[in-house]
Amino acid sequence: MPDSIPQLEQKVASAASVTEKVDALNGLAWEVRRHDIARAIDLSREAYALASESTGGDLSYPTGAADSLSNLVIFYQIQGSYEDGLSAGFEAVALCETIGYTTGLPKVYRGLGNLNNLLGNYADSLAFHLKSLQLSESLGLSEEIIRALNSTGACYSELGEYHKSLELYQRALTLLDQENIPPLRAQVYNNMAMEYLRLHEFDAALKHALLSNNLYHQLGDPAGELHSLGTLAEVYIDREQYDEALDCLQKHNFLAETTGYRWQFVLAQILMARSYNRKHMPAEAIPFAQATLAMAEEMKTREMVYKSHKELADAYEMQGDFPKALYHFQLYHTVRDRMLSEENARRVQSLRASYEIRVAQQEAEFYRREKERIEDQREQDRQYFERLAQMKDDLVSNASHDLKNPLTNILLFADLVRGQIPPDSSEGHEYLRLLVAQAERMQALISDVLDLARVETGRAMTRQVQSINELLVSALHEQEYAAEQKGLLIDFQPIKPDEQAALDPQQMRRAVNNLLSNAVKYTPKGGSIRVWANAKSGAVQVYVADTGIGIPANDLPFVFDPFYRVNEKQHLSVEGTGLGLAITRSIIQQHQGEIAVTSTPGKGTEFVISLPLAEEAQLAL
Ligand code: ADP
Hints:
Elements: H1 5-14, H2 18-32, H3 37-51, E1 54-55, E2 58-59, H4 62-79, H5 82-99, H6 105-118, H7 122-139, H8 142-158, H9 162-178, H10 182-198, H11 202-219, H12 222-238, H13 242-259, H14 262-278, H15 282-299, H16 302-319, H17 322-420, H18 426-457, E3 464-467, H19 468-485, E4 489-493, E5 500-503, H20 505-521, E6 528-536, E7 539-546, H21 569-572, H22 580-590, E8 594-600, E9 604-612, H23 616-619
Parallel strand pairs: 4-6
Antiparallel strand pairs: 1-2, 3-5, 6-7, 7-9, 8-9
The structure holds adenosine-5'-diphosphate.
The site of adenosine-5'-diphosphate (ADP) has 22 residues, from helix 20 and helix 22.
């Protein structure tokens, strides 16, 4: 026997800890729900507030909070506040999932299933009930399985799948043979009776209604007994056993009056009216139907209102009072039609809402998949480029051996052959000179191609903080001799004060050198070369200008492309691979810098490199 309400109130008052108090409040709320749903809701809210007070970021009693929410789902349903019930349910699901309170979930799912059923979302309702069933099965929670079978059965019944629901109830009964939970057994019997009644299997209906009623009676559960008496009465009415029905309803009436369950009292009245009408005793039926009508109007339960009008119409018709019969018959139709059309409108509305939610979910799912697909594609591309880069690396390192070594050997053997050619064989020496020149060109080309490939992979860089002036001086040193040979003047203006940049000194020297060597190569004797630098807004600019042959405007955009050479005699007569500027640009780009060129043919060319200066953090390295 569960504790009585005063006992539970006592427990709440004497609770020594938060957990005890929350449990006591939840227990009390559960018991008072049939008498005072508003109080049950208040108590649950109080329990929830207490259990979710936070201590150091954690809820003080997380499972207690989840239990309160899960009760609220049911209480809001009883109260008719379906939306509140749904939000309590979703909050409960989230909480149970967060705190890993899986065993609390089947009850919440069941509550959500019932709410959706009432809102006309039958598909969602069935989904929640099945979820509750699956979860309780996988957790092996026998009682929850039985409850889930019972409520899933009721859901199928709502969908008109009476055989399916009977099958589930039957499974529940089999499980109940092992688990001794009489109130649940009584409930299952009652549901089965209703099902058989719908299937017009009146004997089976009667059998189960009686089983249910006896069990509830033995249990001393007045709410359950009232429920089963109502079912039993309906079964008797359909079996045309009106006296038995009335007998049942007398008991029902008495019990409803003593317990104060008003709703059940109304139900008894209408069934009385129906029984008398079927017995062709309209005079007896009318007072019951009128009493029902009055109470139903007061309670604003339109279903009962139109059912009362129906019984009144039938009764007056039997009495031959056609005007009254017509009056009630019209009201029966008006109220019923309005209610059904409102119900339909509500169902349509909730169908639309669930349709919209489903569309939104599908869209979200679509974008999620699309995002995944793009990420997959990106990953594939990344792997592809990684493989390509690897192939390029392999090629570069293999080619350096396979191409460079034979050439070195050719030049070595050419040297040896030189000693073997008679000194007077001018032809022999000319051929050898050509051979060496060709081999050296090839060597230069291979070396440039490999350098470009290596720089482009960006892997060969080792940066360090470097003074700009020092860098320029060391590059100039390398070209001094060639410039002198051609009688070119070099003018260098160091940057003042000196600046520092984080760069790979060897590579950057190579970049500047390429510009200087071009200046030397493409400036005729007597010309001059100017090198200077300045710094502004976090970057340093290095200029290399000459007074040489210049570059035609049409060629300017392409001089940085690999293998590009200006197709003019003056240019082609100078030895070159067409790779120097491509290498330079690649090195500058690897340093997050930029390079630009301006030129006037016949007057000269000016290159400018712009490099980011080292940041404070890098200078500290
Ligand atoms: P190359 O090895 O041919 O010098 P580069 O890539 O260094 O290759 O230069 C590409 C082309 O740009 C050269 O062939 C030349 O025609 C032109 N060029 C580069 N620098 C200068 C310069 N300072 N003056 C005139 N023309 C130049």
